[in-house]
Protein 1
Amino acid sequence: MLSCTPTIKPQFQKGVQDALLIRDQSLPPDSILSPPPPAELLDVTGIPRSCGLLTDWELEITEKYDATALVQGLAAQKFTAVAVLNAFRKRASIAQQLTNCITELLPEALEQAKAADDYIRKTGNTLGPLHGLPISLKEQIAVANHPTNAGFVAWVDHIVQRDANLVASLRSLGAIPFTRTNQPQSFMQLETSNNIYGVTVHPMNRSLTAGGSSGGETALMVLGGTPLGFGGDIGGSIRGPAALSGLWGFKPSVGRYSGAGVVVPWPGCDSISGTLGPFARSLRDIDLVQRAYSESRPWAEDPSLVPYPVAIHHAPAWNRPLRVGIMVNDGLFNPLPPVQLVLQDVTKKLEASPLIQVRPFEPLDHERAWQVISANYFEDGGAKIEEICAESGEELRPLTAWMIEECRKNEALVHQTIQGRKAARDEFRALYSAHWNAAGVDVVIAPVAPSTAPPPDTSRYWPYSAVWNLLDYPSIAFPASDMIGGYSKDLKGIPYNPKTAAETYAYSHYDPETAQHMPIGLQIIAKKWQDSECLAAAQVIERALKG
Amino acid sequence: MLSCTPTIKPQFQKGVQDALLIRDQSLPPDSILSPPPPAELLDVTGIPRSCGLLTDWELEITEKYDATALVQGLAAQKFTAVAVLNAFRKRASIAQQLTNCITELLPEALEQAKAADDYIRKTGNTLGPLHGLPISLKEQIAVANHPTNAGFVAWVDHIVQRDANLVASLRSLGAIPFTRTNQPQSFMQLETSNNIYGVTVHPMNRSLTAGGSSGGETALMVLGGTPLGFGGDIGGSIRGPAALSGLWGFKPSVGRYSGAGVVVPWPGCDSISGTLGPFARSLRDIDLVQRAYSESRPWAEDPSLVPYPVAIHHAPAWNRPLRVGIMVNDGLFNPLPPVQLVLQDVTKKLEASPLIQVRPFEPLDHERAWQVISANYFEDGGAKIEEICAESGEELRPLTAWMIEECRKNEALVHQTIQGRKAARDEFRALYSAHWNAAGVDVVIAPVAPSTAPPPDTSRYWPYSAVWNLLDYPSIAFPASDMIGGYSKDLKGIPYNPKTAAETYAYSHYDPETAQHMPIGLQIIAKKWQDSECLAAAQVIERALKG
């Protein structure tokens, strides 16, 4: 987890040390693991319970209550916001020591929790539908008066004056932003590694990546360190880590969540836009936050948003079986055995439901899709990332360098101008829309990633998630393997014959024994703007799988 | 009205001659003015009635019925689609001979009208909510199997295979696209002049421009040659000619009307996007077409659209007086006397209404707004326009050349990269949204143009209309001077002291005696995506003005 690379210029080294100090000093003294578990202990999910630092009540609150149950209890004054916050602060601190997942606990959260408690005690009313709920935020989502570095050493001490719009909305709903989570350098990685805070590892196996770019969020949530969190997704950065961690992660259409105040290297770069979105331990929590956020009318403050609410009850009734397309592979990369197996078992369960009509869904030229989206990510060919890194002397992380190279290669392939690359994007979107309509499906279930969590610095296959960013189709990752009771077979018994360089590369990092203990999620995709329909379909599918 | 410039390369001259032949041969033989009125006759609005070519029934149908009354009559089988179509074909032909407003009558419309009549006769049902309604279309909106040149000589014989999505939607609603209307070279003009068909002039004074870029539509409609039409607006091209002609013209938010199949010089150029929108002789006609188009669910076919309907009844009730901001000038250019006078008189009438609360609205740095939008129009600095013109040897029209120069100047001023110019755009949008919210208004009424229709080749002031394209706020032009019974004073009695170069230039082309006979429209602007609210506010304002 060493963070400071030796190349960092002296004038930036102090900033990095200060950032680490801010983080470490923010951890409650009564939450320090002493001694920490040995590095050889890979699965640390039992530590919060076994370490003895959390009371039974704290264990109960952080493990047995989802966000919906928490806001119900807080509104009923069964427990106080301060008590809930302190439980999550301690547990987040433990998670940090185990996986390096947070960048700081926010000290002001304590005052806010006290104010929430005072308010409800005096008035009998909640501050809003998320009254007293602790919420975690990916680091780039600015919090007023805190440095926000977006994973860049050069920005390590850049203090932001105003809350990001999302943070202000969450506060207005009564929620309490309480911790910020790690993200990668440049955020253009499906992992979580930077030269300030280092690498975030997977709590179920610390030799593996937590995924990314919102991997700090998921490592924290898997360890019970947050009831609800927010990340960002421009190519899979919410759905990827959610799928590798057995969590729900929702990537809405761009134009639903305000990105105002989120620190990015390239304002104005919108050939492909990312979006914020929530992580949760249950679908009802995703719906909770959607309903609440819609109530806050974020579009009044951010003119880039559409003024329409998103939540399950806003979806029109189907009045017939849900037509679910199953995309077993993307025509380029045959998923590794765990993904194949889970998708097969999920399909069988769905086929048994009278509420669902399963049909195959064929991908439409995802090779072209990847070329087009990667050619459109950087309008400056990645120059700004290199420039920001050069400013501090920090090295490009391996996956940052790989991504810049990949994008440049595809820029040259697709078109020499930004306008021409956008025309290719629009053309592909129109073709895919017609293809989807012809397939006659309401939603599609597909892999998010081709495998369970791989070792760090090897996540080089984006198309399963990124195609839906190119199309800007809403998509929700769901904990598929957990919902069907885990793998129905020994993965060692399932053969796999890699045929392409990408398959061979991923297979070389695949170990069936390791994978057997790791979850795999899938995603449910709906057409553009059908965010409510995506969530409503997820509810139907969840019932069929748990049924 | 001479079109062919001498510089056009020989191999393109035949194409131009053919285009003119197609147009002229499409005119019904019984609609030819012989002799045409003398060029010195400036106001030709009386000619359709006086020329003797139209029967009393045809005069009645084309003058006294708006689109709503026409579809009611067609649905009730009070008249046939063929009879209605023939009336408008003849009148459009007369309008063409008077103002040079169309590029062709579509011969296939006759078959479609017959089919509509057969259908309703046999089934008793309409083909849809626009059953049998003739509709005119700006030339760039592609019609299958016809050349679509978008005002460029080089494209004069480019045949398009498929209807634009809008055309397909209109057909599916029962409407009958029957004529195509003139537009300028490059469509980046607030007038209507190109080197194929020439210049479209104003039917109320043929020494003046009809406005543009959708000026073919408005010249045609003023002469009763179409009951409903469609144009496009990226800087005022719907609202401008509507305001100069006493018509309604609606520029919705981008993402409401499908632009798929509209021929433009630069696919992929979307730093600033234009949109299609309707022209009508009444607000209820605008609402008619909005309701019908929403019913056609255009978003199912075009993934760039939001899946939400737009019409008056979709606006939420205000349950309080409508808060109308009045913007008397943009802080840069004091409107000429006719505009000042109409805005004052409109304001007085609105102040007398108990349903309206009038308040001042101050513009926020429209100088910057113009810099930012013009810097963002061309992602290639206008190179593609020059290239297409060079291909055929045609000259840049004066206003095309002026616009390219203006955009290049402001590109240099705003930022050297496309990304940086878009960042400036986004920053301005956020500032204006906050400014609007702080002003506490539901809608704003403002000038569309600083004067009544000016002489050709002098329309060089875009900000009154273009600022709302930068912000992408929906806006509807309404026939303000007509609705309040014309000018309440002799314009000669109103002094004007030009202070800036732009004011001096416009004032040098201003003649109060000429202006006294020309209408002036204003626009009602709502915040982004509040398209239904914009129309609902227009209804409240219309009632207040008509008293």
Note: Residues 261 and 543 of chain A are 37 Å apart (CA to CA).
Protein 2
Amino acid sequence: MSLSKRIPIFLLRLLALGATVSATLVMITSHDSAQLFNMKFEAKYTNSPTFKYFVLMNAIASGYTLILLFFPSKSSYGHLILILDLVMALLLDSSISACLAIGQVGKNGNSHAGWLPICGQVPKFCDHVTGALVAGFVAAIVYFLILLYSLHNVMNLFLLKT
Amino acid sequence: MSLSKRIPIFLLRLLALGATVSATLVMITSHDSAQLFNMKFEAKYTNSPTFKYFVLMNAIASGYTLILLFFPSKSSYGHLILILDLVMALLLDSSISACLAIGQVGKNGNSHAGWLPICGQVPKFCDHVTGALVAGFVAAIVYFLILLYSLHNVMNLFLLKT
């Protein structure tokens, strides 16, 4: 791949790395507690399997993106990298969707199921989760752009050769 | 695209259509009610924005897949269809992830947030949601395979020409 095509991908990966690392750290540091009817109520990300999944996926995406930033780009790995990028986009997409669904219940509750909103009691926790979701969303969008750009390059080369 | 390459894609799309239509219908027909402390508790998919999102995405994917089944495949649309397939895979992935996160709370509850499990009260509703999730999962996997197969074809053609 020519240098002019590698620079946009490098910059996109740098942005994705920033977003996934932010999402991971902001979610890990989310913590708040509240006193309610003599019961101490502590909110942290490990309380929910969905939030743990979010942290795990963003950590994996961070590691993957970091490796790819310094990977000697050989065209023979292009096929594999495109598929790994696709898997990473799907995993990030999955983690923010799941996290958003739980966050929505945390914010608004669900009266039909009798689940009360918790953000009024632990606002700092909810702010952190919102921040992590925004960062995760940026990461997912950037991975989508990486995929589009890679596909565009592959397709254009293909069309030029025919 | 040659016929030998169009048949696997046609079969995969047929399978995807079956899965997304099943997921939509099974979720829409999910319904159960329970009597609890003189209060009637009714469970249906419209009670949760996540389940409504799941139905919407699977309905969109059904429509899209149906159109593509009878689309006269011209190579000039290949680029666009590949990107639309990617978007569809991401939307299906997002809808099952969100639905799975809520389903997990419905099944196990979350003691930290004070959210009680509801599947004990409305088992028929939970069975339907589980069925819809399985069908949705199949659809997402099939769309992943469609993407892999399309990428494989594009890449192979590209490698042959170089």
Note: The CA atoms of residues 61 and 88 of chain A lie 6 Å apart.
Protein 3
Amino acid sequence: MWKQAASRKADSVNALIPHEWRIPSPPSNQEQVDITGSYVQQFLSAQEIEITEADAAFIAKKTASGEWTAVDVTKAFCHRAALAHQLLNCLHEIFFEDAIAHAQKLDEELASSKRPAGPLHGVPVSLKDQFHVRGVDTTMGYVGWIGTFQGEVGTGKDKVFESEMVRELRAAGAVLYCKTAVPHTLMSGETINNIIGYVWNPKNRNLSAGGSSGGEGALIGLKGSPLGFGTDIGGSIRIPSAFCGVFGIRPSAGRLPYEGMANSMDGQNSILSVVGPLASSVQSLRLAVQAILAQQPWLHDPLVLELPWRSKEEQLILDAAKGATGRLAFGVFTYDEVVAIHPPVARAVDIVVKTVEKLGHELVQWKPPSHDRIFQIGLKTWFYDSGADVQKAFELSGEPQASQVSSLYGAKGRPMDAVQIAENNVLKREIQKEYMDYWNSTQDQTGTGRPVDAIIAPCAPFAAARPNGYTYVGYTLFVNVLDYTSVVIPVTQVDKSIDKALDNFQPISELDKATQATYDPDIYDGAHVSVQLVGRRLQEEKMLAIAELLSDALAKT
Amino acid sequence: MWKQAASRKADSVNALIPHEWRIPSPPSNQEQVDITGSYVQQFLSAQEIEITEADAAFIAKKTASGEWTAVDVTKAFCHRAALAHQLLNCLHEIFFEDAIAHAQKLDEELASSKRPAGPLHGVPVSLKDQFHVRGVDTTMGYVGWIGTFQGEVGTGKDKVFESEMVRELRAAGAVLYCKTAVPHTLMSGETINNIIGYVWNPKNRNLSAGGSSGGEGALIGLKGSPLGFGTDIGGSIRIPSAFCGVFGIRPSAGRLPYEGMANSMDGQNSILSVVGPLASSVQSLRLAVQAILAQQPWLHDPLVLELPWRSKEEQLILDAAKGATGRLAFGVFTYDEVVAIHPPVARAVDIVVKTVEKLGHELVQWKPPSHDRIFQIGLKTWFYDSGADVQKAFELSGEPQASQVSSLYGAKGRPMDAVQIAENNVLKREIQKEYMDYWNSTQDQTGTGRPVDAIIAPCAPFAAARPNGYTYVGYTLFVNVLDYTSVVIPVTQVDKSIDKALDNFQPISELDKATQATYDPDIYDGAHVSVQLVGRRLQEEKMLAIAELLSDALAKT
């Protein structure tokens, strides 16, 4: 039964791809490992390529001036998104027609008013399938949620209710056109579910696109979207960004509005999932954050803080970039003392370190409080209800859990009680304080008069996970426990001629051994390798400025 | 056993009051109902009266300029605090000698450097007995905590560890000299425990000083402190402020640092207890908040938000006060549809309403989402652990719970589980959103172009509770559930010739009946009556400005 429902749903979405955009016989992953660049360009017109290979910040200028019509832009991205889906399984919902109609309206209004609708006028924006958008389902990958509102029937909300940020994006002039794939439960670093299957990495289809915002990563990685929104409770924005070679920011909780979105384990409030943008440039991330903050989300989401965009927080960094003021200082680490990273990830961190040195900034070896302790505290929050919430969602249809998820939530158990939860909350606050004190203490090691400005760190032990190979999430989860701001930037690609497997690796645990064992230069060759830049809590302006500074410098090396 | 430990502790604190400050035979409550004004002044010198009847903002100017020495100021408040304790039982810890030594040092440093130590240079500050201050106990009213660190023996922290805000207050130049009484558990609107007994209201010793920051209310109400800090999870700053005729602010969570304070049910994070000042003027509250924010508490407490003092948030209000810009708009309600208020409280709200009208501002009848629903959600958070945490504290000594507390935590039960807690968290967020939408909707009812700027509301059904008469906390708890900013301002006093009991009151419930039945004009005569001014989340600057505007206007009526 669930199989039929799942394929009916998948078919109905595929049917929304116009015939002229279909790939007659898509190559297998083995036949065409890398589908970016010239491969995907063969299906597109020169104009479509020009449009889709621009970033959101550039597009916004073109559409606001009327130089590019919103319709042309929207059509181009719809086309490329359709190609991405056929090659990567990255979409849950398609509403190209609505999008083109909306774009048409924007063009008309611009023509008559001469004023763009907002800072995202005519910019296509893709959304992870947790956002409710009128006219389409929100399945979050659950077969049992098809045709319902978050699994409930008869609420009157399905296909009508919209998430707060959807309203704000429309108000900013954005064109919404598709919703992207997630792993059912959202609690995986790979994206897989029983409706669309497995989401592949566009740069290397031996590998995962990451998760849980894996559809976003894949889609933006193939330039089928210039800007999308994902969510992150343990790395779910940063992992797909890193794997797919795009930029992504995990803001601190309370910066951007989560109001009215579907979620797993809603009401767990020790570590809140946060929403944030992924895009093909830092400038586009900034545009997105600024556009949302301009809507004063704190008046519409009770969990959002009244923090408008703070230009002066960027200034220190912008001044440093121009050499106008003193240096910046960075902490750096490549090993969290739990799981060792693969050679290409170590090389990526090294490239960033050398870039920082070349720019004349300072580096401090990061020796923080135990990341293992942080990891254990964070992981515990995922099991407060012992899986009761997600198990209920699976039971609606009887569908099985993917192995990536059943290893977490396959067995039923007793939920934790208030005493256990309170205890974990106290441990969390204590380690946050300890980490904060450590961060402050680096003031004595820098010559800047300040503690380090940001940490350079791996996003994961691997450039990207191999299928069923997401062994360890500690490199991203620590940021969620600490509620820090983190921006992912692409650095390099795996080069099998340089990035040899380690000869005599000495694992400290089975997990460490299993993780290192997944590295194979032939499999990984060409994959994106990224790092994350971690800042203190609510430092979105500063961290975007630092990310721009470093990615500009990396582009020049 | 516990009785001996309790009286030994009480005696040891009383022994710290110098002989010359002792009241030979203090009158009974009946003999001397009101101990403020001329009654307490008889024990003080003219200089001591001048100093102690100044507010913290004024004192700070005098001590910063050296016109008043910190030693004179400190001694005067120590003396008046000692009197307050003998008449009201408001102190848990006395460290006058340390304070005077600190003041001496401040005087010397000022003399040599010509620069005050900080914005609170030489200002005596009293602290609720949740703050850890070196050299003295933190008992929080538990006999079992005497001589321990939060009930634990052998941590090495007792009498050594200090709370983050203690460090910040010292850095701002404040002189700490005493810690004030709380009800054991902190979960009561009256202050009582087995060490110091019952804390009485200085203006009317038939009545409670309120709770849980009841020692602060009593002490500041008698001008034994110009500025103190309490905490509030359901009204615990606002209730004693209101009852004792002082000003108090309940900031939103994350504005001021709670790091390193003792607490009940630590780790319950659906509704966080917040810390905030009580003082004899709005200007003093502002000075206190500004002084703490100037210490950048967000770098030392992981739960504090990076929100420096925002002067422009005050500007709208200051401009309106000067008549420079448009009007303000206020919502007003006197009945939450659960429990009716006593006649004097209704009259106090009416006085404020008339003042607002006289100033030319607008009024909107406040018809919000169900306060009963909000109350139920809030109350539930107090019972997540079914009392396990506070019961453990009582068991350390075997002492009994006061009836004000045993009605809540007397019986043992099972803690709630993660599923129940998550459900309550979702309900809380939903009502926060609903309330926010309602608040936004008042834009259509005001002529200001904005939703209402603040709500004028009762703080409690009564001017102050009679002993064992704190029947209902809904008028304050709704603010904690919504995480709003609220400032209490004194308005008037009960006048038995005006404030008659209601003739034909029709209660809607037993609770409503019991609450109204506690009103007796003869008992209440002379008591302070206050209101709270409730603003949206994190509106501390704006709400203090509004409180100043209205209290200035009230003073002129």
Note: Chain B has one domain: 2-556.
